[in-house]
Amino acid sequence: MYDLETRRRALSLVDEGRSLNSVSQLTGISRSALRDWRVRIEPLQRSGECVRCAVPAATPSPAPYAYLLGLYLGDGCLSRQPRGGYALRIACADSWPGLIAACEEAVRAVRPEGAVCRVQNVGCTMITSYSKHWPCLFPQHAPGKKHDRTITLEPWQQTITDAHPWEFVKGLIHSDGCRITNWATRLVQGERKRYEYPRYFFTNKSEDIRRLYTDTLDALGVEWKQANAWNISVARRESVALMDRHVGPKY
Questions:
Q1: Which pTM was predicted?
Q2: How far apart, in whole angstroms, are the C-alpha atoms of residue 40 and residue 104?
Q3: Where do the structural domains in the chain lie, given as residue ranges?
Q4: Which of 9, 75, 82, 99 could form a disulfide with 175 if both were Cys (CB 3.0 to 4.6 A apart)?
């Protein structure tokens, strides 16, 4: 394994305009390693125990985990890597740089011994981290799309979301939700006037994930309605005020 300084020196040669082939010949470092470092320069930390594998089993940092769980259920996935282990990937729209930073911070808090990187795709940034223990932390992982299979929380996950419900709701909204301004018109003393009001939407194809969201809203005293088959709306003034206080719009 090459240390971070060696990686930086090698990439500085690439940044000078040299080809990967010439830098590889000069340094003895493979071209595939150089390509990988252009995406993720930090060495992977392969040591460090998993809190869920420890005896007795512990829980990850609870508030960041509740937020990250919401992000994962919305826009996250785990993928098996050719050399073993898993990659956690959370897709974050480039329109919301604050969301990208918050997601990266949560991943670092949940697995502080692991490396985290940003991989740019068209219109979005994938917050990515590698560990063989990600399935321990996200047991909802399984083949296929989430909305095609059952999604339930383990008791230890439910304990965390019960203790940090607003972080869980925030993660779900930041992944598959939004705060928008609606408008409507009505007659006032014979004159049609326009008025605007904010509301929150959460959209997910998985009935199980929508139920996790609405059950948490119920526990928080937030009123909601089923807007359509996949869409949950929060529009009552008092409930929107609660959401604004604890979640707020993406930024």
A1: 0.79
A2: 14
A3: 4-39, 170-246
A4: 75
pLDDT given for residue 72 in this prediction: 98
Report whether pLDDT(40) > 80.
no
- Separation of alpha carbons 234 and 246, rounded Å: 14
For the chain, the maximum distance between any two Cα atoms, rounded to a whole number of angstroms, is 82
Picking from 89, 49, 90, the residue whose alpha carbon sits closest to that of residue 174 is 90
Structural tokens at position 91 = 């897709």
Ranges assigned E (strand) in 106-160: 116-121, 124-131
Domain with residues 170-246, CATH architecture: Roll (3.10)
Distance CA 53, CA 6 (A): 33
DSSP string for 197-235: EEEEEEE-S-HHHHHHHHHHHHHHT---EEEETTEEEE-
Please check the confidence at residue 175 and state whether its pLDDT lies above 90.
yes
Q: Using alpha carbons only, how large is the chain's radius of gyration in Å?
A: 22
- Would you state the structure tokens that stand for residue 178, as one six-digit string? 């939004």
The answer for residues whose C-beta is within 8 angstroms of residue 169's C-beta and 6 or more apart is 70, 213, 216, 217, 220, 243, 246, 247
The distance of Cα 231 from the centroid of its chain, to the nearest Å, equals 20
CA distances 182 to 156, 233, 249, Å, are: 38, 12, 14
Q: Output the average pLDDT for the chain.
A: 90
* φ, ψ (nearest 5 deg) of residue 77: -155, 160
Select from 197, 156, 158 the least CA-distant residue to 179. Answer: 197
